[in-house]
Amino acid sequence: MKKKFNQLRLQIDSLTVFSNIKKDDVISKFQYLLNSLCEKGDNAVGLYSDFVSALYPHTSCFTEYVKTLVIQDDNFYVKDTAAGKHMSSEVKTAAEHELSLLQEVASVSSDDIKEYIDYNGFLPDWTTCNIDLNYDFMEKLSNIRKTGYGIFAKYSFFRLENGEILPVAHPDYQNINKLFGYERERSLILKNTEALINGTGASNMLLYGDAGTGKSSTIKAVAAHLSPNGLRIIEVKKNQLYQIPGIMEELSSNPLKFIMFIDDLSFTGNDDNFSALKATLEGSISGCGDNVVIYATSNRRHLIKESFSDRAGD
Length: 314
Fold this sequence. Notes:
By secondary structure, this protein is an alpha/beta fold. It has 14 helices and 6 strands. The protein has a 6-stranded mixed β-sheet, sandwiched between helices. The termini are far apart.
């Protein structure tokens, strides 16, 4: 068994396509435990406890934990496959081999480990189960235009912070079937968003009207309703508009569809934020990708505040 532990340790070290998994805290602690068992260290009990305490907040099933890591890993193989790039036979072979060894790692039970720890006291257990990791991963790739990868596979609502797309774990939205009173307006947004998903050509949209009439609620409800079809929504604040071109460039190769959501939008006449948005919509070299639309809401139809003095001149 010591030979097997050493083999498992080396298998994890050898990961290339799924190399990100080596950095995971639970997997790192599992490696420390394997190292201790191979070297007959005196700290095996403590390392066993460290591993289980890192695993338990996620799940008590080690197999499911490893499977989740693999399915949510946004490595180059997943990204390039999603972008339709050719994958060499060497890379495909490496990925298939690593999936097999990760399945072997995920099958290690607590009894397998405890048998080789010199300790008569209580040690907590974890469970394992039967999976076909290669099948699950390939199924994910075949549905990636709907499921996404990385954080986009786990969440549907996002926000911008310091130029980074961050998930919203507990989004505030209503069920689309519970929005009453403006079916015509809702159907227009739904139809346009479905066109985005189907790739038949969608428009950027401005929803204007009095405060509290359901503009933002409708956009969020549509986003939640269509998220199983591969739609994600990213909220952008007014002072973040200049970041939109960079974010669109980042999303251009993503297989999912995205709504850039700008709430309560308005400008003054000399507002630089207006210039940034206008450049994105009309004159930016990057422009809007086929998988991104901008939905904005405003309390006014005319976004730029204007007075009679603004009209003075020629």
